[in-house]
Design brief:
The chain is α+β, with helices and mostly antiparallel strands. It has helices at residues 2-5, 8-37, 122-136, 171-177, 216-262, 269-276, and strands at residues 40-42, 50-51, 70-77, 83-90, 93-104, 111-119, 141-150, 189-193, 211-213. The strands form two sheets. The chain has a five-stranded mixed barrel with strand order 3-5-6-8-7. The protein has a two-stranded antiparallel ribbon with strand order 1-9.
Length: 277
């Protein structure tokens, strides 16, 4: 095979196949660039504050359109249900969130976790938690304006930690911590308050990145051109292999003809044996 490949005609054929493959690769690159250029940016007005009732409902999954949407919601905080969530990064610094339980009153009733602010150390977060619980005992209705985010998955605490240690805002965990919370509705998401409570810093919650939808027809065309380029090289290899097999068959046929020509006409294999004897 190697000797056949190195023959001038097949070297030229290889160069031609590579040229064709390169042309197909250029066409594939062009199709990909077209797909990117014609990509449609999916814009969502996440920075326009909307009522929570227009965005999500309790006991229902969070839709993609609701993720990152700024919302306003009114309700009452439930005293004793405020918790600390550790390991939260705020502008590159790790600290604690104070997360309260808000019973929604201006939308479908249900429990909604609300992150009220961030603190760089546990002591400051604990002091703010105590203030939040003290204010919740008054039963006053409050309004929270912030960004709605889907619930996070719970993380199992380390063996030497308190079993109730939280590192994520997991609704599945919170409803087991909230006091006397039974089968009442709950929102499967939480709100990061835009304005922190006293003693805490604002939570850094940037808007979601814009998404772009590619023109998949151009992408499929690009894949086709790549396949065509690979087929051009494979076709060259297959032709070389056929040429090798054809020459091998011709050589074997020539050997058989030469052997037949060496036997005198009309003789048989037995006569040849007698002659040699």
């Amino acid at each position: 095979m190697l000797r056949m490949m190195l023959r001038p005609r097949w070297v030229l054929a290889l160069l031609a196949a590579l040229g064709i493959a390169a042309g197909f690769a250029i066409l594939a690159q062009w199709q990909v660039s077209r797909a990117v250029e014609e990509a449609e940016v999916v814009e969502r007005p996440t920075e326009q504050v909307r009522p929570l009732a227009e965005v999500v409902e309790p006991d229902a999954p969070t839709e993609q359109a609701a993720t990152g949407q700024r919302v306003s919601v009114r309700g009452t905080l439930v005293a004793g249900d405020t918790v600390l969530v550790q390991g939260r990064v705020n502008d590159g610094e790790t600290g604690w969130w104070v997360v309260a339980h808000l019973e929604v009153t201006d939308a479908a009733p249900g429990g909604l976790p609300v992150a009220l602010g961030w603190a760089p150390d546990e002591q400051a977060a604990g002091d703010a938690l105590a203030e939040v619980d003290a204010g919740a005992r008054t039963g006053d209705e409050i309004e929270v304006v912030g960004r709605f985010l889907p619930a996070e998955a719970p993380i199992r605490p380390e063996d030497d930690e308190d079993p109730q240690t939280m590192r994520t805002v997991a609704v599945a965990h919170l409803i087991n911590v909230w006091e006397n919370y039974d089968e009442r509705p709950v929102y499967f998401g939480y709100v990061t308050a835009g304005e922190p409570v006293a003693g805490l810093e604002a939570i850094s919650s940037p808007p979601p990145e814009q998404q772009a939808e590619l023109n998949w027809l151009n992408v499929f065309y690009a894949i086709e051109w790549i396949v065509f380029g690979g087929f051009a090289v494979y076709l060259w290899y297959r032709l070389v292999k056929d040429a090798v097999e054809r020459e091998r068959e011709e050589a074997e046929e020539a050997e058989r003809e030469a052997a037949a020509a060496a036997v005198p006409a009309g003789s048989t294999p037995a006569d040849d044996d007698a002659t040699r004897a």
